[in-house]
Amino acid sequence: MAPHPTLLAMDEPSSNLDESTGWALGKTLAQLKASGHTLVIAEHRIAYLMNVADRFFYVRDGRIQAELTRKQMLMLSDDERRAMGLRAPRKIVRPELPLPQLIPTNTHATPTLEVRQAMMAFDHHQIFSDVSFTVDQGQIVALTGINGAGKTTLARIIAGLLKSKSSQILINGKRLSARQLRHNVWFSPNDTRTEFFTTSVAEEVMLLVSPNETNKEFARRVLHELGLWELKDHYPATLSGGQKQRLSIACGLVARRQVLVLDEPTSGLDSYNMTRLAETLSYAAHKGQAVLVITHDNEFISSCCTHNYELASKPSH
């Protein structure tokens, strides 16, 4: 804002924001509009813009297919909206999901994943402490919390990508080292562009397993189930955001990781790809995986998550 521009162009500014910060962004944009700025915003999540935007241009296949007013957007039926791949234009209240089991009990089967007294601090500032919960096979647990609460840091500890001596991460009741965790937990980062290394989808899903016929058949089945078989010869970098997320999950399934951890997988996804992702995670859970997903997306949480664990932020001093 230092050069005092009159036109502001933004590309999905809400994609990684928590709920309250997203609505605060909407208020800030309204103030900028009232002060005379012209705003052009490319977005999938539009609820926070309903009191800001005057017109909505629906773009498909590189062309503007429709121009809608705020009233017309709100009048779209759910079927019409989903057919256009649009996110909900009204605020979605976070569903009241149960907490995951905090600690195993004598009557409770050994959980696939147990996080026990996890903590992390940087430069003498405590990010979180005494975090304990479990994720069972077949569960999809939403890990929520405000920006800066430490969700990604916790996920990286669980996946063995960040060491924390005081944190105990157990898989099927056994405490594992960071190296062992990397062989049991699949981590899908927020930016999947850094994740793939081969020249085709088919090669990517087989990268971490022996190329025997059993694994090849399983990979074919997973690619079919996740709607990726027709893309098997495509270079992973050319896939859409939703297709990359599904490929990441396919890799975790084919590698037979017991736990899948995803970091804000719906960032940048339209309604269609969000729904496909939810179906993919439900498929993984049905196959027996334990799924932990970092998300601020209430629409997504409502579509597939079974439990919710909110990571509380520590006040800074």
State the main characteristics.
10 helices, 2 domains, five-stranded parallel β-sheet, Rossmann fold, 13 strands, alpha/beta, single chain, 317 residues, 30% helix
Textual characterization of the structure:
The protein is of the alpha/beta class and 317 residues long. It folds into two domains: 7-83, 3-Layer(aba) Sandwich (Rossmann fold), CATH 3.40.50.300; 133-159 and 181-310, P-loop containing nucleotide triphosphate hydrolases (Rossmann fold), CATH 3.40.50.300. Helix content is 30%, strand content 23%. The protein is built from ten helices and 13 strands. The strands form four sheets. Strands 10-11-12-7-13 form a five-stranded parallel beta sheet, with helices on both faces. Strands 6-5-8-9 form a four-stranded antiparallel beta sheet, covered by helices on one side. A hairpin with a 2-residue loop joins strand 3 and strand 4. Helix 7 packs antiparallel against helix 8 and helix 8 packs parallel to helix 9. The longest helix is centred in the first third of the chain and has 16 residues, at 19-34. The radius of gyration is 21 Å and the shape is globular. It starts with 6 loop residues before the first strand and ends in a 7-residue tail after the last strand. The relative contact order is 0.15.
